[in-house]
Amino acid sequence: FPIYVPPLRDRREDIPLLVRHFMTRFAAEESKTVTGITTEALQMLCAHDWPGNIRQLENAVFRAVVLADGPELTAGEFPQVAASLAGLEEARPQSRAPLVSQAMQNVVQMPAFQYEPHTLPDGPDKFSLLAGDGEVRTMAELEEEMIRFALDHYRGHMSEVARRLGIGRSTLYRRLRELGLDAAE
């Protein structure tokens, strides 16, 4: 049986939530410190009809995050949406105002968006990517720690360790010799 999903232009109240979701995701993926969006930009996004539905909105937010110079997305980061709205405003200047206002009320009620950069927590089962001096650790250090961890985790079962590390058993034994590690560790 088919599932009917109304177009995004009929669900404008979802746009602020979707924008925040995409903004969070892309800021983390692109290592950007985008922490919010201006009211003007959000109003512009809510006013757009989104003929490409959610995929088009997702792509617009991705481009904006990549182009962003500051912590907030502004209307300037959405040039295609602005150009599209400029052409439509002449034909229907007041048609979207109530819907945008309703969507903005929903945004005010939402908790503030906070960007938290992705970090690995410390603990016995986690790897620190940074050395004590705050610099990135070398590949050799990380490789040795990964091999030690896998040996312990798979209780020295060399075939399983090699398979899980994505290397051959002979390569694993060679790396153990080169690193001066004992398989029994």
Q: How does this model look, in words?
A:
The protein is mainly α. It folds into 2 domains: 8-109, Helicase, Ruva Protein, domain 3, CATH 1.10.8.60; 120-185, Orthogonal Bundle (Arc Repressor Mutant, subunit A). It contains 8 helices and 2 strands. The protein has helices at 15-29, 39-47, 53-67, 79-89, 97-109, 139-153, 158-165, 169-179, and strands at residues 36-37, 72-73. The protein has a two-stranded parallel sheet. α2 packs across α5 (97-109). The longest helix is centred in the first third of the chain and has 15 residues, at 15-29. The radius of gyration is 25 Å and the shape is elongated. The relative contact order is 0.11. The model is unreliable at 106-122 (pLDDT under 50).
What would the keywords be for this entry?
mainly alpha; Arc Repressor Mutant, subunit A; single chain; two-stranded parallel sheet; 185 residues
Provide a short characterization of the protein structure.
This protein is mostly helical and 185 residues long. The chain has 8 helices and 2 strands; from the N terminus they run H-E-H-H-E-H-H-H-H-H.
Fold blueprint:
Layout: H1 15-29, E1 36-37, H2 39-47, H3 53-67, E2 72-73, H4 79-89, H5 97-109, H6 139-153, H7 158-165, H8 169-179
Parallel strand pairs: 1-2
Helix pairs in contact: 1-3, 2-5, 6-7
Largest sheet: 2 strands, parallel
Helix content: 40-55%
* Rg over CA atoms: 25 Å
- The count of domains is 2
Mean pLDDT reading: 80
Strand share of the residues?
under 5%
* Cα end-to-end separation: 57 Å
- What's the SSE pattern? HEHHEHHHHH
Number of helices: 8
* CATH architectural type of the largest domain: Orthogonal Bundle
The gross shape turns out to be elongated
Assembly context of the chains: single chain
- How does the helix and strand content classify structurally? mainly alpha
Across the major sheet, the strand order is 1-2
